Amino acid sequence: MASVWEVSTLLDALQRDLQARIDPQSWAMIGIYTGGVWIAEELHRRLGIVTPLGQLDISFYRDDFSRVGLHPQVKASNLPFAIDGARLILVDDVLYTGRTIRAALNEIFDYGRPEQVLLAVLVDRGLRELPICPDLAALRLRSNPDDYVKLRGPQPLSLEFVQHPATEQQP
Amino acid sequence: MMPWRMGEGDPQRDSEGRLRNLLSIEGLREGEIIEILDSAESFLGLGERTVKKIPILRGRTLVNLFYENSTRTRSTFELAAKRLSADVLNIAVASSSAAKGESLLDTVDNLLAMQVDGFILRHPEAGAAHLLARHLGERAWVVNAGDGQHAHPTQALLDVFTLRRLAGPISERVVVILGDVLHSRVARALIHALSILGCPQIRVVGPRTLVPPELHSLGVHVWHELEPALAGANVVYALRMQRERMDAQRLPSLEEYHRRYGLTAARLRLAAPDAVVLHPGPMNRGVEISAEVADGPQACILDQVTHGLALRMAVLARLAGGGA
């Protein structure tokens, strides 16, 4: 079974929830490459956040480096504001094991000590391997490790969820 | 005999053909060079951060094993390893065990007994890094940081990295290499790297004693007069003139060398207007290069140092990391 979600309605939900929690004058936003940056660009614009958007490539902080080696083209992380004392919204597309968020937090802390970090994701597909929980998630899916959840973009954005045939049969 | 299980007898590769050691440019594939340059590009941005360290080699131990002095190469390798969070042991053997007669392999065996993961070797004998790679097998990896007159692969990679960033596509550039090409591992490695990357014309220039016509076999154009060789050049690479060559009577004097082959501002004007000048350092100002050119706007010599750090991080990450 394959489902495709309209991303703009999911973004509407995230926008609404974030507007209730943050002040666009005093919060900054960071997107995680690649899908997280697409989502963050849209939210950053919609919320009218004043500080420029930050981008994070967490490849250098991955915990599987000794197993899979280095991705040859790592994009430069760009955090164009002071991290010390900042209030941050960390944005990713799909939250899965939690390892990407662990790596992102480690990298952010190499730049300074933020006052507060909120985690906003488009989809939480469960199956966490680390104690990480999103503050905001537009969609929560019950998935199996063999399922496929992927944000396609950048224009247009679409979210694809393909259930593995073997797991689809289960109740 | 050590167990030897590398693929097809190539000491640079493991049994699956992956790059295991970096010993020379010869034998590298174009795609591998480009991947290393691309990942050096990623590491370049790290130098601009307040915290310049990333965790990918945390817990690994690397040995900088230097049988010859080289402040720049040794310190950029050390810094590259430290920025990747590895622990680094610096051993200058000229001043320690070699003086007591301990052989390279005995020294290495002692270091292996300390559970090190990789070696960065600078040695006056050609082939020393290959010997070490064969001795180590799969116990640790090696980067050749210069062996006699043979090879110096990270220098060539940082040179082509600098050219790619500051001089444009190598497949469209005319490169002049000026000086003691015959004895230079830097020149040899650079010629190989440029050839693999499709450089359309490499000209080597110098006196017959240092640039003999046989160099033609490397696929380069041999010149003995500097001025005509500079016409249309996009890159001028000045090699360091070694004082030993005077003693061996291959050159009359440094003054005479400078008069005929020194890269001066007047001569540089014969090259393309936007030509860049490279030098592996340390420079002999007033011998192979004038101070005016060395400090001038076309010199990319300090960029080479910055790029060398990022490039060496890319090489260490490649050899120490798993995967492709």
Structural features, described:
In chain A, helix 2 (35-47) links the parallel strand 2 (27-32) and strand 3. Chain A starts with a strand and ends with a helix. Chain A has 5 helices and 8 strands. Chain A has a 5-stranded parallel β-sheet with strand order 3-2-4-5-6, with helices on both faces. A 3-stranded antiparallel β-sheet of chain A has the order 1-8-7. Chain A has helices at residues 7-21, 35-47, 65-68, 99-111, 165-168; strands spanning 2-6, 27-32, 54-56, 87-95, 116-124, 136-140, 148-152, 158-162. With 171 residues, chain A is α/β, with parallel strands linked by helices. The model of chain A has no long low-confidence stretch (mean pLDDT 91). Chain A is 29% helix and 27% strand. With 324 residues, chain B is α/β, with parallel strands linked by helices. Chain B has helices at 30-44, 71-83, 104-112, 128-136, 153-166, 185-196, 226-230, 244-247, 254-261, 265-268, 291-294, 301-320; strands at residues 61-66, 87-92, 118-123, 141-147, 174-178, 201-205, 221-223, 235-238, 276-278. In chain B, strands 7-6-5-8-9 form a 5-stranded parallel β-sheet. A 4-stranded parallel β-sheet of chain B has the order 2-1-3-4, with helices on both faces. In chain B, helix 2 crosses helix 12, helix 5 crosses helix 6 (185-196) and helix 5 (153-166) crosses helix 12. Mean pLDDT of chain B is 91; it is low at 1-8. The chains are: A alpha/beta (171), B alpha/beta (324).
